Amino acid sequence: VMDFYNKGGGKGLHIAPANQTLPFEKLKLSKKEMRQIILFMKTLTDTSALHQNKYVNHQ
Predict the structure, then answer these.
(1) Using one digit for the tens of pLDDT, what is the confidence trace for 17-53?
(2) What's the pLDDT score for residue 49?
(3) Distance in angstroms (rounded) separating the CA atoms of residues 17 and 49
(4) Which end of the chain is less packed: N or C, by CB atoms within 10 Å?
(5) What is the pLDDT of residue 29?
(6) Which carries the bigger pLDDT value, residue 1 or residue 10?
(7) Bigger pLDDT: 55 or 30?
(8) Helix or strand or coil: residue 52?
(9) What is the residue range of 6's domain?
(10) What is the distance between the alpha carbons of residues 50 and 59, in angstroms, rounded to a whole number?
């Protein structure tokens, strides 16, 4: 996903998705910058609910 948007999304790849509202300009992020964004997004992920008893698969 990061590579897709870093290349300008669909329009940047010469695809015209009807639901993409972002500009087609490339983000021009370095590999390091993309890794940093991914690491930041992972800090926003809360998986605590996955371990609550009511969500555990009881098969």
Answers:
(1) 777 777 778 899 999 999 999 999 989 988 887 777 7
(2) 76
(3) 34
(4) C
(5) 96
(6) 1
(7) 30
(8) coil
(9) 2-45
(10) 16
Hey, what amino acid is at 39? L
Q: What are phi and psi of 5, to 5 degrees?
A: -75, -30
Q: Which amino acid is at 8?
A: G
Q: What are phi and psi of 43, to 5 degrees?
A: -70, -20
How many structural domains compose the chain? 1
Token readout for 30 is 């370095």
**Which token pair is 1?**
């996903």
* 59 within some domain: no
Q: Which residues contact 28 (CB under 8 A, 6 or more apart)?
A: 6
Confirm whether 21 is domain-assigned: yes
**Tokens in use for 29?**
């992020």
Q: Please, what sign has the CA dihedral across residues 40, 45, 46, 50? A: negative
Token look-up 């639901």 returns 19
